[in-house]
Design goal:
Blueprint (H helix, E strand, L loop, with lengths): L8 H20 L5 H28 L2 H21 L8 H27 L7 H32 L1 H9 L4 H26 L7 H8 L4 H34 L16
Helix pairs in contact: 1-2, 3-4, 3-5, 4-5, 4-9, 5-7, 5-9, 6-7, 7-9, 8-9
Length: 267
């Protein structure tokens, strides 16, 4: 099979009927999810339509500055999502900057290496390759970083007496925080580990499925999917490590004291 099967807007409208059914079931069962479902669907449709028109224009222009501007916007939006998903957040610029900075360093570095050295895009910043790959890396990194930070901040607040007892007994801040740091790292790593473990047998990833549906040879689609998963896993792990250790550094000081006043009170 070659080429791809073009979809019409009627096809999309027909497929959306299943979500309408979910909304009806939510009303019938009094789940209270119909409004959230409608808002989520509306946001998804609007955002994807805008992205589609934007990418079409970017592909025609081929400007590194425009590509960089869109990548920056994606990064800042992902950072905002990381910040919003935490119950307790670091105060001030650290609250937004730590997660954003960790994702920026990990995602941009690994995406650039993947584009230039492995995929061999010419030019490496081509929006056709750079933006979709960066989006996949950021999407997964966002989940891992937000889970790690939320787990760390909630746990440290709850275990304050145990941490301070360790500090009083002469432990350094890194030693006293070690069990909670490990717990946070596990939380951040778990989604991507589960995703990789289930890929292929339980689920076919969206990128691979899309390539197969558009006519790409399945073996080529598998190779691309493996490459993308390796890059996503590496970037997520690096981002989680940077964000977690950065937060431990911020929540303690050079005199080995716990500084929970640097956390917000939470909801």
């Amino acid at each position: 099979m070659s080429g791809y099967i073009a979809l019409t807007y009627w096809d999309l409208l027909w497929a959306s009927g299943f979500l309408v059914l979910n909304g009806v079931l939510s009303i019938w069962l009094k789940l209270g999810l119909e409004r959230k479902l409608a808002v989520a669907v509306a946001r998804m449709v609007v955002q994807l339509l805008i992205v589609g028109f934007l990418l079409k224009s970017l592909f025609a222009v081929q400007s590194p500055w425009l590509t960089g501007g869109v990548a920056l916007f994606m990064l800042l939006f992902a950072g905002r999502e990381v910040w919003a998903r935490q119950d307790r957040k670091l105060r001030g610029i650290w609250g937004y900057g730590l997660g954003t900075g960790a994702m920026a360093l990990s995602a941009i570095t690994i995406t650039t290496i993947g584009l230039a050295a492995m995929i061999g895009a010419d030019p490496w910043w081509s929006p056709r390759f750079a933006l979709p790959l960066l989006g996949m890396v950021l999407g997964n990194g966002m989940t891992g970083v937000s889970l790690a930070l939320d787990t760390l901040h909630s746990t440290v607040k709850r275990e304050k007496p145990a941490i301070e007892a360790q500090l009083l007994l002469g432990a350094t801040r890194w030693e006293a925080m070690r069990p909670f740091t490990r717990r946070s790292l596990r939380s951040g790593f778990m989604p991507i580990i589960n995703s990789m473990a289930a890929t292929g047998v339980v689920s076919l990833p969206g990128m691979m499925s899309g390539q197969i549906l558009s006519g790409v040879d399945p073996t080529e689609a598998v190779k691309y999917q493996l490459l993308v998963m390796f890059l996503i896993g590496g970037a997520t792990g690096l981002g989680v490590l940077l964000a977690t250790f950065g937060s431990v550094y911020r929540l303690t000081d050079e005199r080995d004291r716990l500084r929970l006043e640097r956390l917000t009170s939470g909801e």
